Amino acid sequence: MGFPFPSTPISSMAFLCAILLFLVSSSIYSVSGSTNLTAYEVLQEYDFPIGLLPNGVTSYELDTSTGKFSVYLNATCTFTIDSYELKYKTTITGVIKKDKLSSLSGIQVKILFFWLSITTVIRDDDELEFSVGIASADFPVSNFDECPTCGCGFDCDDVKSRKIDVNRLVYSS
Predict the structure, then answer these.
(1) What does the UniProt keyword field contain (predicted)?
(2) What is the pTM for the complete model shown?
(3) In the chain, where are the structural domains located?
(4) Per CATH, the architecture of 48-171 is what?
(5) What SS3 state is found at 122?
């Protein structure tokens, strides 16, 4: 006895489309998808601390075959850490690989009077290098062990103040 087949065969084009759809959907994850990982846990899987993202991520998408990602916040997020003012847009995009975030869009830092986009973050042992194009700055990874909160950064309860150790700003030539 054989398996029951539909009386009309599936066209090879429809079959290929179904396989492609399955492959594409299985390589893209989101918080509400089949994985139970949060955006913060995904950062950790790529060897980054959770504090690179503020509290309040509502969802994310990650294409594991290319590393392209999108992270979504419910509102624009700004806060100050030491003398740096940071701004996160509602959508942050880029490419993630182990120890490297590149092609970043949606995160800015105010230096003096100018807003500059953070384009790359590289982890080198216990240091994170943040690049804004021709300039970069290094910070200890441990400064990002906790997530900042929109509006107040790490000093939300006014009980303890958190300082970030700043190494000098390095200009690429």
Answers:
(1) Signal
(2) 0.71
(3) 48-171
(4) Roll (2.30)
(5) strand
